[in-house]
Prior knowledge:
Helices cover 45% and strands 18% of the residues. By secondary structure, the chain is an alpha/beta fold. It has two domains: 8-132 and 294-305, Quinolinate phosphoribosyl transferase, N-terminal domain (Aldehyde Oxidoreductase, domain 3, Alpha-Beta Complex); 140-291, TIM Barrel, CATH 3.20.20.70.
Amino acid sequence: MRTHKLSSATATALAGAGLQVNDVQRVIKESLREDLGAGPDVTTQSTVPKDQRSKAVFATRSAGCIAGIDIAVAVLEMVCGPKNVLVEKKASDADRVVPGRVLMHVTAPTRGLLTAERTALNLLGHLSGIASATRKWADAIAASGAEVRDTRKTTPGLRALEKYAVRCGGGVNHRMSLSDAALVKDNHIVAAGGVAQAFAAVRAAAPKIAVEIEVDTLEQLHVALGAGADLVLLDNMSPAVLRDAVLIAEAHRATTGKSVILEASGGLTLDNAADVAATGVRYISVGALTHSSSVLDIGLDMQAVV
């Protein structure tokens, strides 16, 4: 299976979005391999003249928020060759869209266009689904000043792209990998013998990185604050308990001068998001942004042979 390099314009656009071009190309190659690894697109090769070119349009079929337009363009370029693809973009990532919104017009070799179609739509629809779900959460808590944050509950191999989609939807990213920051969870606490012991062990091993500690009770919160945590993840606490946790953190800052960021996690829904955010926590952590979002329905329609 042969793929082409990206145009400098597409590579620049991906890099400007905070994506590693090599990561995007790797994902696309693996996706195309599922269709083309054992041979060519038999249907397209047998029904479409070799030198035919066509115009097509990418358009939404449902409302949402867009993420991945340049990734879809990258698919077309890698299949058809960048010099053979003419794109006129009509929307940008992070745009809110309604059904029937045209995202881009494309002119390309018909064979390449039809071969690339499913991979381009799979990635564009998946990422736009994540952006759309994130946008709903971000809107729900906008009045509070809190932000919705993703997790590492991502599709294997797609983390960078999915976290980009979260940003398009108005969310913020948690750590990209296990080495970016420390998150001491309940199993680490058990293994280490307690909250304070776990924090001390991480701080000794990695003195320069931020350390977040997950706690289930206000008693554990006091211990985490005393240990020196930079961030505290408040797991499965009601809004009433979260408000108490915020007061405890504020008292700690008044006494020690050290501010601690609080993040709520567990039991969160769009229905209770505003109440949770209004407690004064800085972040609400929602794994469902990346592991449970529905695909945004986007289609590619051929318009004319040119």
